[in-house]
Give the backbone structure.
Amino acid sequence: MSIVTVFVVITLTFFLMNLMPGDPFIGNKAIPKAIKANLYAKYGLDKPLGIRYLKYLGNLAQGDLGMSMTYKNQEVIGVIKQAFPVSADLGIRSLIFGVLGGLLLGTIAALNHNRPWDTGATVLAILGVSIPGFLIGTMVQYVLGFLFSNAVREIFHTDFQLIPIARWEGFKYTILPAFALGFGSLATTSRLMRTSMLDVLHQDYIKTAKSKGLTPFQVTLKHSIRNAILPVVTILGPLTAGIMTGTFVIERIFAIPGLGRFFVQSVQMYDYTMIMGLTLFFATFLIFMNFLVDIAYGLVDPRIRLGKGAA
Amino acid sequence: MESTINITPASFERVPKDLVAAQSILRPSLTYWKDAWRRLKKNKISMFCMAFLIFMGTLAILGPMVFPNYSSNNLEKTYSKPDSVNWFGTDDLGRDQFARTLRGARISLFIGLTSAMITVLIGILYGGISGYFSGWIDDIMMRVVDVLITIPDMIILILLLVVLKPGVGTLILAMSITSWTGMARLIRGQVLQIKESDFVLVSKIIGSSSMRIIIKHLIPNTIGIIIVRLMMLIPAFIFEEAFLSYIGLGVRVPEASWGNLAEAGALQFPNNLYMFFIPAAFIGTTMLAFNLFGDGLRDALDPKMRK
């Protein structure tokens, strides 16, 4: 199934991209015809579409994604190798922040149903769902990086930065982008966890667990959370997708040299091979993540065992 | 304890049926919609959000008529802070931000509403056909959806937007093309479920045509879910448009949308903050209102919540 999807993505992307008006060599200056023809020949653009498609598939099978058309002498694979770790780092941090924070918040809300803690968590969740991550990113940048530093300067007459608001040079730099990127996931997770937890808390087995004398902590950890977490596992796939697309903007806002920024730039510059390579990479990555989530679901839920033929 | 029971022949007289009383209706009969409306009215937050959305909708319709100058430049007065003439200030070319915000409301809401409706429509048609005919047609149609659903939407959306000529229409088209699969699955599930239910069986037995079953049973039983989904999709599309504008693929200037206004504001950062915070506040509050109203509507339209 996954392989079919990857193939569809390759084909779709390839043909869509070649339908694009304009090409990578439309610059500010008009390029002489002869040079243009040479450039076309160099990147194989002079051949018919079908042949280019087959050739691309052939190269792909050998793990070759081609050369970038706008960054001189840069292989697409090279760009991915260089920029993806940064994006992955940011993405994993956001996901951990979002999912763990969401689980915690949702659990607290459900255990304190209709009390102030619940209201607080619900308000936070609905805010998180409603305010786009890129707005949150810009706002925290402003409040922490600008308002706060200015206030400190007014009062203490020294330059002081609580937390770096841009670039990517160490742990401190990751906090704000990861927060902005993960906040939406946090909200979604906590909403889902709250509903699912409330549902579980009314079940008979919770009563049984309580009546056989387990401490509230044991009941919560082993019985409530273990069962309530299942729906959350199913949305891990979409959450990963959301965080990945989120990096396109968050990386731009915080000036992080990740893959998302490359993708947006390559699209704006008609860099065929780069778009193709990155799309393929992102798509395969997501499909693979979904596959992992399916497996994780089987591990968490003992009722689901993928048997032969069931997958 | 001796009590005499008076039994007279009159006791055995038949009490005539009070036809008037039997026919009179004590409580007003509630249709599905009246009942839903009654429950919605009880939810204060939802009602407030509805009022807010109606207000926003009115602004979007009437605002640009009253303040039509959303694209005229005034190079004498650029980057002016909000004052009595330009209530929301002016931008880099001296365009009135108030008129642009209103215009943005119209464009953003229009995009959200239309994309959501197209998405739902495609979803209903596809899912409906698939679910109604079932069998091998269903198999093929659902396998196609299975493949499409695993393709990351945003990536294909970005590609489509690059390939097609940018504009509001393209945006709507591209966004709806990439997001109908979830809706189709939902509708198919509903249709399959209702099709197997007893009331449809009875309806078939008494000889109703397919058309009648669709109109009388399938549609009324799914409409609640459809409306709720529609309400949830609108903010999602407004969000997506804003996101795309942020990476330069959304609505292009001089046309205004909340997304590209916020983006223009973010570029000014950290100067001229009004340019960022005003559109950001509009996006945030409207999304919030849609989400809360959608939640309320879901509770109101769910027949299981009926008491």
